[in-house]
Amino acid sequence: MAPAVSACCNRRFCCKYCSQCNNSLVFKCLNSPLLASIADCDESKPPSLEQLDALREFAGIAAGASAPESLATLAFLYMCLAISAKYGDVPSVDILVWSELPTGAGLGSSAAYAVCLAAALLMVCGAISCPLQEGESTARWTEEELTLINSWAFRGEQVIHGNPSGVDNAVGTWGGALRYQAGKITPLKRVPTLRILLTNTKVPRSTKVLVAGVKEKILKFPAIMNPVLDSIDAISQECQSVLEAMPANPSPEHYPVLEEFFDINQHHLNVLGVGHPSLDRLCQVTASHSLHSKLTGAGGGGCGITLLPPDTSPPAVEAAKQDLCACGFECWETKIGAPGVTLHSCSSLSARVLHALAQS
Predict the structure, then answer these.
(1) Please, what is the Cα angle at 149 between 148 and 153, to 5 degrees?
(2) I need a surface site. Which of 128, 135, 151, 331 has the fewest CB within 10 A?
(3) What ranges in 273-341 are assigned the alpha helix state H?
(4) Residues 325 and 256 in one domain
(5) In this model, does residue 97 exceed pLDDT 90?
């Protein structure tokens, strides 16, 4: 069985590749004029509308199709052809995908998918090394190789979302926590492990539509909306200061401050127009258990996170989960701060993951 590549973005997403399998779809691409239109692509240039239209026509995907399967297919075709055109012979590959991440829920599932694809394709093309040594269960790439993975993953995100920020693929590549401001992404060097409840409202939403709605509101009411954005920025900076202070001084007094940040931030996000009645309900339910929540991702439904201070008892967490599930939501208890994209040996994967990959 081939190695598996995983990228963690709140929960888990991984793909298995096999370099000995045939892929007739890619083979047909290589023997068509389509390859010529992709030949000048690299990680420094976004995909053009003409290239994406050609891929849609080839794959039989209608213009404007937004189903996750269609977008995933487009991203795969673009990345496979572009990476292969730049780095040499096209490998014959079979990509198997398994995920615990629900799509369209604000958990970065598309970014995790793009990061895994980029790492696997770059490795089989020889653009990056295979870092896994004999006897090792997991391994990660060098900083330079991670930068290349991230660059190509961002291009895959552009195929799927149009104009993404790059935050999700950066987190999927490097893991941990990042600060994003004015297009600049900075890893936070010291962050604590925070326990959270991750709740999926199961309300689908489109990041592209929500982002467009926020932009429209800012253009319509700049004098009102810009101060809200400034306040959100201030919350982020204050939160970063608290998080970076916690490892050296793990005082329980930090958590009430983070809880207030959660509450203020959630109110601001509602003002921006990315809230949803399901997210309001989530916050009300957790508040009844003295817990504090906010949306994650683009909002408009999707998922929310609930901070679990260290003194939160297991019965209290279970009671909150039961009430959230009674609303039709899905809950998981997890932690913030997973490692980034990783190459796994088969022996390091759980039986459940191996079974899922084998059945794909």
Answers:
(1) 120
(2) 135
(3) 277-287, 314-326
(4) yes
(5) no
The band of 5, judged by pLDDT with boundaries at 50, 70 and 90, is low
CATH number of the domain within which 61 lies: 3.30.230.10
Read off the tokens for 206: 């489109």
Q: Is residue 324 part of a domain?
A: yes
Tokens standing for 173? 């590549």
- The reported pLDDT for the residue numbered 327 is 97
Q: For residue 122, give the H/E element and its range.
A: helix 109-124
21-56 pLDDT per residue, tens: 434 444 445 445 565 666 666 677 888 888 888 888
> Across the chain, where does the E strand assignment appear?
4-9, 11-18, 94-99, 138-139, 178-181, 184-187, 194-200, 292-296, 303-307, 330-336, 342-344
Say whether both 54 and 202 belong to one domain: no
Residue 68 φ then ψ, to 5°: -55, -40
Cα–Cα distances in Å, from 296 out to 207, 302, 321?
12, 8, 18
Q: What distance in Å separates the CA atoms of residue 9 and residue 39, rounded to the nearest whole number?
A: 31
Amino acid at 256: P
Q: Which amino acid is present at 202?
A: K
Residues with active-site annotation = 110, 168
* 266 and 208 housed in the same domain: yes
Domain enclosing residue 313, as ranges: 192-336
Contact 166, 81 (CB under 8 A): no
Say if residues 341 and 5 touch (Cβ distance below 8 Å): yes
Residue at 185 is within a domain:
no
Whether pLDDT at 62 is above 70: yes
DSSP one-letter code for 299: -
Residue 184 lies in a domain: no
Query: Would you say residue 174 lies in a domain?
Result: yes
Domain match, 153 and 283 both: no
How many separate domains does the chain show?
2
Per this entry, what is the length of the chain?
360
